[in-house]
Design a protein that fits this description.
This protein has helices spanning 3-13, 32-45, 50-60, 70-81, 89-94, 102-105, 116-129, 147-157, 165-170, 183-187. The protein has two domains: 28-105, no CATH class; 116-187, no CATH class. It contains ten helices and no strands. Helix 7 packs across helix 8 (147-157). The chain is elongated.
Length: 191
Amino acid sequence: MNKKKMDKKKREIIDCIQHSNDFSCVNYEYSISNIKADINRLCGSMPYMSVCTIQKLCKEVKSTNGICQEFSMLGDSCLHDMPGMSGCNNFKKLCSKDSVVKQCSKIQIVKNLPKTMELFTNIKSICNEMIMEGCEKCTKLNMECEVLPIYSSLCIDMGDMLQCQNWTKMCDLSGSLFHSPITQRICGAKD
């Protein structure tokens, strides 16, 4: 067997999710069906997570670029929000710190996106200080409490509150969210 055929056979055998540091995996692409299945697994378990809202908003504006690219949305969840969930298992292996997979270096996360639990804590704190529209949906963390849009709504109305510092950072003019088609839904009107 010639070297070219052996190299091709080796590439076919390598599981790039398990061996993402193998040089033959540089151009490996995690399939869109797997990405969607992982996001659906995450959102099926915790539908109030930020990634679920981002996915929904991106679908509404029909955007698949930047932070709306499916692999980037999965990255938002698995890199810093909920990396311990089973929907992140393949992503964490594929994009480990020693990964050579190019797809992992192209992720465009929402800069300064607060973690889901941090958003919920801030909502509770705001609502303990004053009753505002949306507070009634987040008395506990459940399907009615979509933390990102409720937190954003509270901070659009009362952005000077201490609990809105994370929102201010996330919606900063230099951030990836500000330059996306969903910014108005999360950060309010662009200046």
